[in-house]
Amino acid sequence: MDRGAAGAALAGEQDARPVQVRITNLNKTFQRNKESVHVLHDISLEVEEGELLVLLGPSGCGKTTLLRCLVGLEKPGEGRIELGERTVVDAERRVFVQPNRRDVAMVFQNYALWPHMKVAANVAYPLKARRMKDEIKRGRVQEVLDVVQCGHLADRYPPELSGGQQQRISLARALAPRPALLLLDEPLSNLDALLRIDLRAQLRLLHREIGFTGVYVTHDQEEALALGTRVAVMKEGRFEQIGKPGEVYHRPATEYVADFLGARNRMALEVAADGTATINGVPVPGFVRPGFTGSYALRMRDGDLTVRPAGATTVDDRRHWVAGARLLEVLPAGDHAEHVVVMGDSTLFVDVPAALGELEPDQDVEIGLDPDHVLCYDVDGRLVDDWAAIR
Ligand SMILES: Nc1ncnc2c1ncn2[C@@H]1O[C@H](COP(=O)(O)OP(=O)(O)O)[C@@H](O)[C@H]1O
Ligand SMILES: [Mg+2]
What we know:
By secondary structure, the protein is of the alpha+beta class. It has helices at residues 4-15, 63-71, 119-124, 134-147, 163-175, 193-210, 221-227, 245-250, 255-260, and strands spanning 19-32, 35-48, 52-56, 78-83, 86-90, 95-96, 104-107, 181-185, 214-218, 230-235, 238-243, 265-271, 277-279, 282-283, 294-300, 305-309, 320-333, 336-343, 346-353, 363-369, 375-377.
């Protein structure tokens, strides 16, 4: 018997690190103007020790509320939260452990440092409650300040520091007590673009070095893919998909996830019983495999589409050309140009490498589709496999 793959899978399971966070059937409802707003719907999630799980979703989908439930600032109406071996929330059994007894630290978008306290005092603050010798405390403060490369700022006051420095100090303050769980709520959103990318890379390095367990909230897909060991995509208080960054990026389980992760171009695919396929009403022979029928939505990223003048005969074995589109506008963007194309009900954004040259706006064009880079969804918005005729 070949025990290779199964044996390895089993060993992998045994080697799995302990679960640091276990959320089970969590529900949270707010009262607003005598109406109740159901914000978290039956959320279940496990975060392993050493994982940096990213919660990704648009504003208002419940990300902050979930973090606030974890840290203990909100009381869920239903469900359980376990941190390591400890149950900190069990709504049914009326268990609710106060925030200061949870060993969870949180970093906020707006730094939240005390302006009248020196940096070192800010960082030492969460150690106050702990019975720790002063010299050990001082050592710990210096250590975490060094970790975030701010050791030289210990005697400064927060208002004297840049946004990026202040956010690094907030991170040091959160790390100082070595919490079992670190929560980060859009910590980079208040920083300008370049600094954000710089700090993102530093945070990733830091996670690799000290391996804290974290839940990181963002609405920025790039940040999520860059930082997450796994990414949980949220929609209206529910998880749409949880997976490794590569999985959610390359195989978005639902149309919503595809859209959120950059596949913003949408076209309608109809396949009649006789196998004739149309895209936005235009026949596309040989595009879908035989036996495949029904109504679907196709989703593509800007760089996965291409465009050529109507009637051109570019040879490209992989691509299917769909006629009946019109080029509205071309926006140069350095190494590529964004072509805005209208085709029936769809407005499409097509990135063409600058080397291939720009087309003139206001002309009829054809759209090139490569089935390997087209995502197909059924009428319920679920990913469909094996729909393409050629692969
Ligand atoms: N204290 C509150 N009272 C009433 N509604 C709230 C409260 N906190 C959050 N909400 C609502 O819950 C929803 C989710 O909010 P939030 O968790 O802050 O979302 P996100 O962090 O994803 O932007 C929003 O509709 C918000 O208006
Ligand atoms: Mg929020």
